[in-house]
């Protein structure tokens, strides 16, 4: 049951026409949409909203001839790689791990590309799906796909960060646009294993600011009795031009030791300026089985020094809603996951876009007074 009056799924895997996919005609085997989810959100000049949807396209039969197969971009075409079954662990439906390397090495069961989906001003109706403007891998550093776009409008320019995946690096790449619909690749802006980069929708002290989330398997302990928990946190960076980024010396949002619900955390929506400060929605992950429980939380940051948290709420803003996915339960492969990735103003509410269960796009109308 949702706490908000308007809370629904608006775009499903079955809404994607794979005959118009960038992968169409390349592989010679059947694919399907594992998920159409984690949509960036922005308002277009004409008033409609735009979701940049992550389409995870997977092999219908990844295992054959005693091998598991993965899709990879290679010099302008898409190919299949085959891995012997005895070398892999397939316990996670989203990926498989390669055994025996001495460190964690994985490959994906799908390849993701980005699909622009135009919505009505309130975000509740699909107006047009722009297959002609889909964004697919175009270089070796994104040969395993593009994931989880975030869009910020800074002045008269739209900036979109994406996670580009490859054996070379797990990097953050930047695209820019003059209209929110036609995108130009600007380059790699953060290097290996730095995810969930969210550019603030406005300058602070004449500089671009961003939230980042470096990954790793090793963290140093906070002292006994600290209010903080060691682990992934939301960091900050600044830039003079949105291309060259410098980590900020002060920490950003850190996991609290008093709760395991945010033991792992990362950015959700690009921070937007309100009367109370910069509003940012982020995800906290409670450990459970393989994937964990993903929930959405919020914080307000100081408008002049975003390293200072003015106010936050440890009660989840959004949680996974089984009632929403009940009609497509036969497509479910994950539970307990909501991953919020976009926000836009609309009258007395914020239109909040999320990925539900790594499967579909969820739109929630959150009253502005929620954060007052």
From TrEMBL:
It comes from the Bacteria. InterPro entries: Glyco_hydro_beta-prop_sf, Mannoside_phosphorylase. Signal peptide: none annotated. Belongs to the glycosyl hydrolase 130 family. GO terms for molecular function: hydrolase activity, acting on glycosyl bonds. The keyword Hydrolase applies. This is Glycosidase. The keyword Hydrolase applies. Gene3D superfamilies: Glycosyl hydrolase domain, family 43. Keywords: Glycosidase, Glycosyltransferase, Hydrolase, Transferase. Coiled coil: none annotated.
